[in-house]
Amino acid sequence: MAVAFNRLGFATLRHSCRIQCRRKEWMGLSNRRPFQSAPAFRARSDGDDRSGPRKPPKEPYSFNYDQLVPEERHHYDLLSPEEKKKFQADERAAYERLTSPEMESELQGMVSQAVYDISRKAPRERDLPPRITPGLMAMGEVDEQDSGEDEDFEGDDITSIAHGELEQHREIREYARIAAWEMPMLSKLAKPFVLPPQDKPLRFRYTTYMGETHPAAKKVVLEFCTRDLPGLSEAQRIKLVKLIGVRYNPDTDLVKMSCEMFETQAQNKRYLGDLVDTLMAEARDASDMFEDVPLDFRHHKPKPKFEFPEQWKLTEERRAQLDENLRQRELAEKEREETGRLVDGAKIIEQVMEAITVKAPAAVRVEAPKGKSKSKQRLAAR
């Protein structure tokens, strides 16, 4: 585009006088609207009211002294009458040349060529790399398609499996640094264990998976002893055991229940606490104490407890008796060795091997078959 306008400027400088070509009004370009999509003339001069772009009529040339700038007027006044006539004739020729259809077509060709050159330099759509539509598993991820081309693989890198091993090694080193430098500092936050008071009989247990998301992390387990609950009589405690049902262990007098129906541990813990309050309120209700309902512990399968026999326990008398038996065996073995009655397995094997005589197998004579073989007979027949 810039080249086309430069050539247009050079075409106007071909005139003998360079000053007069600076005036746009003189060239008749003030009423023209180049490079615009809106039509300049809506109605035609012949009375036709059809709207649409139409080329304006060519204005006749007329020299106007008042349109000259002061510097051009001063230059024009210094010319002689013959030079003034020549000046006006040159201006008319330049005007006819610039407003001729040939010049307009030439300018149009220059503009078209400039637009074509610019469009060739711009990247075309078929030259761009194809865009990959992100799938379901890639939603929300950063689009790295336009981040630049990857460098060519020149054999100076490791494989993907090796990168995974390297990343695992880095993770192990990171945990080793934490264990060496940060975990010893946790001893400052350690507190001595204190037994829970009697007014807090409920024990809650949580499960943590070290920062990982796990469906069992929201589960809360509650344990308590029925005899530790304050303000319950024996009859009310038995009623509470009947209400609890299969969650009661008669051997340890422990009640165990859990909850994981809510999304957070705090909600599940609150639900278990409210459930214990409801059970205690029902147990204190004297309108119905469930005397006609017997205690049912069929759900509990007691584990057998094996006791170590008393005679197997190692006492001081039993230890002295075992030491005496060991000393007696050592003395008897030493006596057999001195009298030669101690059995030596290696000597017995040597004696047996010497007594055994090994006989060599008899040689077997194998005679070759008489006559020609079948292969030799076939060759002779050929």
Please provide a written account of the structure.
Helix 1 packs antiparallel against helix 5 (101-121) and helix 7 (234-244) crosses helix 8. The protein has a four-stranded antiparallel β-sheet with strand order 1-2-4-3. The two termini are 97 Å apart. By secondary structure, the protein is mostly helical. 41% of the residues lie in helices and 5% in strands. Among the domains are: 2-121, no CATH class; 203-283, Double Stranded RNA Binding Domain (2-Layer Sandwich), CATH 3.30.160.20. The chain contains eleven helices and four strands; from the N terminus they run H-H-H-H-H-H-E-E-H-E-E-H-H-H-H.
Properties at a glance:
382 residues; mainly alpha; Double Stranded RNA Binding Domain; four-stranded antiparallel sheet; 11 helices; disordered N terminus
Described by strand count, sense and barrel closure, the largest sheet is: 4 strands, antiparallel
Count every helix, treating DSSP H or I runs of 4 or more residues as helices: 11
Q: What structural class results from the helix and strand content? A: mainly alpha
Overall geometric form: elongated
Amount of beta strand: under 5%
On the 0 to 100 scale, the average pLDDT is 78
Helix content: 40-55%
Poorly predicted ranges: 1-51
Taking all Cα atoms into account, the compactness measure Rg is 57 Å
Q: How many β-strand stretches?
A: 4
Q: What is the topology, as strand order, of the major beta sheet?
A: 1-2-4-3
Distance between the termini: 97 Å
H/E series: HHHHHHEEHEEHHHH
